Amino acid sequence: MPELPEVEVVKNFLNSNFNGKRIQKIKILNKKLRYEIKTNITKHFINLIITKIFRRGKYLILLFENKYTLLVHLGMTGYFRIIKEENYMKHDHLVFYFESKLLVYNDIRKFGFIKFYKPDEVLNSQHLVKIGPEPFSKEYDFDYFKLNSKKTTNIKNLLMNQNFVAGLGNIYCSEILFDAKISPKKRSKNLNNKQIKQIIKSTKKILYKAVSFGGTTIKNFVVSNEKIGYFKNELKVYGKEDTGCVRCSKINKIKKIVQSGRSTFFCENCQK
Predict the structure, then answer these.
(1) CATH number (domain holding residue 152)
(2) Which end of the chain has the least Cβ crowding within 10 Å, N or C?
(3) DSSP 73-107
């Protein structure tokens, strides 16, 4: 599933191509997604200009002039691409018509969704109302972390909890904890002040770097017609099971464990 850096890359792509542009028409090719696309979407957004595109956690939010708001989640395999004419592919679901190009949403596994809300409703929707602070924000600081980490859960599961902090998933939690030299098995309530500060620092460092490299392509992350994700080449532990640790010794192998049904990768020697 695309995590914060991948969704940020998609947001930047959409902003550079469609912010300030007017939608002329919308066509539904296949309404079946996680939530069915409502057919009246085709009339609510006609002739409206996109005024802002931003990200909240793993969600994209498109604002339109004084009307409705689109909330997008890419699921496992959702992506947008630009085409010049009506040349559709299998698993295309929705088409936005602009003056000189078309924006198509494709989703093979149909776990993504596109919903619309009134502007004052979207942030209070079931998807966003309980979501935690953005990792890049001032709210995600030492005091917030200290106050909200007094739980018996391990630190990996805490970081994965979208109500604690927005946008993190398997890939970046493993990389963040490796950078911070903290075991994913460590109980969050047992973290000392120095370790908390290091996790916050490592979170911002890894995410900024991942965005600058275009995210991580593991399976299905695509932006427009080009596969990107050069941060895959920068991964230190994720997917590196049984390879030597790049930090402490090639003799010490990266270990894979399962936590709450999710794969975790770490070095037992240098992550404590």
Answers:
(1) 1.10.8.50
(2) C
(3) E-TTT-EEEEESSS---TTEEEEEE-SS-EEEEE-
Identified catalytic residue from 22, 31, 197, 262: 262
Q: Which of 82, 69, 105 is nearest to 18 (CA)?
A: 82
Is residue 3 part of the annotated active site? The answer reads: yes
Residue with tokens 């963040």: 176
Residue 222 lies in a domain: yes
Residue 130 lies in a domain: no
Q: What's the pTM value of the predicted model, to 2 decimals?
A: 0.93
User: Considering 58, 115, 156, 236, which one is annotated as catalytic?
Assistant: 58
Tens digit of each residue's pLDDT (9 = 90 or more) over 165-202: 999 999 999 999 999 999 999 999 999 999 999 999 99
Query: Cβ(156)–Cβ(238) under 8 Å?
Result: no
Query: What's the DSSP call for residue 112?
Result: -
Tens of pLDDT, residues 10-27: 999 999 999 999 999 999
110: nearest Cα among 37, 32, 41:
32
